[in-house]
Amino acid sequence: MPEIRKDPIIGSWVIIATERGRRPTDFVREPVEIRGVRVCPFCSGNEEKTPPEVLAYRNSTAPNGPGWTLRVVPNKFPALRVEGQVDREGDGIYDRMNGVGAHEVIIETPDHGMTLATAPEQKVEEMFWAFRDRIVDLKRDSRLRYIMIFKNHGEAAGASIEHTHSQLIALPVVPRRVQEEIDGARRHYEYKERCVFCDIVKHELKDGSRLVLETDHFAAVTPYAPRFPFETWILPKAHVSHFESGQAVYANLGWVMRTVLRKLDKALEKPAYNFIIHTAPLQEGPLPYYHWHIEIIPKLTRVAGFEWGSGFYINPTPPEEAAQFLRDAGLA
What we know:
Helix content is 25%, strand content 22%. By secondary structure, the chain is of the alpha+beta class. It has one domain: HIT family, subunit A. The strands form 3 sheets. The chain has a 10-stranded antiparallel β-sheet, sandwiched between helices. Strands 1-2-15 form a 3-stranded mixed β-sheet. A hairpin with a 2-residue loop joins β5 and β6. α1 (121-138) crosses α4. The longest helix has 19 residues, at 250-268. The radius of gyration is 20 Å and the shape is globular. The mean pLDDT is 92.
């Protein structure tokens, strides 16, 4: 019998189509292969093909040249630009503002063939430190309200360059999806005087059926009402609302992220995926009701007319089964 499950945070509904029950081998998969290209702008030695770096971790070498382990550069084709003022204004019933913000690329390694799943865990930790360093720098700009950090891995997930990289977009507004999550968390807190994410962590650790892995600092789970098959969340056990305030556990986060991605690679044969860091708005202080986390979404299905028209997602793989497959994939 299919189930309709309600997301405990924003209240959206998901159809778990159990009668369609799809195992990892049932999906039409296009494994992400790193084929290599003749000239890659993100490879060491090609630094002149990107805008000048805004951050680099390097071995005492000159800026914008070889010798780096991680670089952050402005996107060559930015969605938003740093220059100018927001200038919010009305146009009759409509609202508009200038496209002020920042759009940056985090090049995680000079090694073209490396992925986060194959990288040393220290390399994944270094990526999280770079995310934090850029957030701390950009939050000084009072025009900015939110920073979205995300990764598109593989062409099916939206990556236009195969060399592993993540992106950062700083916005002058809080995105609607983020605001819905914050508002839902606030309602839960006002009613129960507890953080909904802390409640989720506590419940999933006790229940165990959707738990993928656990460390001293994190729980990786398949959420109760997942929109997509094998959707996986990484949640800190300790309550922290802002990602940039969680640096004490980045080393452990590097291991957890790498391990989850290796499990997905093994269970789903190197799928394309997106990950998104969910964090509190820049100009807010610590929030007792919100809890930063990471959502990882393998690209196994397509959103079609029913989903767009209804707001319901249809997921053919129950999260309990997905978690079991990922647990069985081991840690290697």
